[in-house]
Write a structure and sequence with these properties.
The chain is about 0% helix and about 40% strand. The chain contains no helices and eight strands. The protein has a five-stranded antiparallel β-sheet with strand order 1-2-8-3-6, with no helix packed on it. A three-stranded antiparallel β-sheet has the order 5-4-7, with no helix packed on it. It starts with a strand and ends with a strand.
Length: about 130
């Protein structure tokens, strides 16, 4: 059964970012934290339908979590639900969500993979 797949598209280690050089800023291991201190990261994630995800503890998404980041989320295809402590919102292609460090989880309740772009910016903790 497929797990959630993530691709790092670009990463900056500081703000303001440097445009010098021509090295690939994403040519590094997948980061352990969403964004480096004072930096940014641009990811694309693919969430398989919930029915095809592995069980919790077997490579499944960690579930409800918070990060010390501001996240700009754009759903590119499929459908995905953002679960919050006090409700939820279902995103369709083209929908945008801004997550400002609140507890949340993602769940694909549809039948097709959900593909999401995520721009993550380091932020002060709540």
């Amino acid at each position: 059964m497929p797990a959630i797949a993530g691709t790092l598209v670009w990463l900056t280690d500081q703000t303001p970012a440097s445009n010098e050089g021509n090295e690939d800023a994403a040519d590094r291991p997948f980061p352990e934290s969403p964004a480096p201190a004072n930096g940014t990261a641009f990811y694309v994630f693919e969430y398989p339908p919930k029915s095809s995800q592995p069980a919790e503890g077997e490579g499944a998404f960690a579930g409800m979590h918070t990060t010390n980041t501001v996240d700009y989320i754009i759903l590119l295809s499929g459908q995905i639900t953002c679960i919050l402590e006090d409700g939820e919102a279902t995103l369709n292609p083209g929908d945008v969500l801004v997550d400002r460090g609140v507890a949340h989880a993602w769940e694909n309740r549809g039948t097709e993979p959900a593909i999401m772009a995520s721009i993550v910016i380091d932020a002060k903790p709540l």
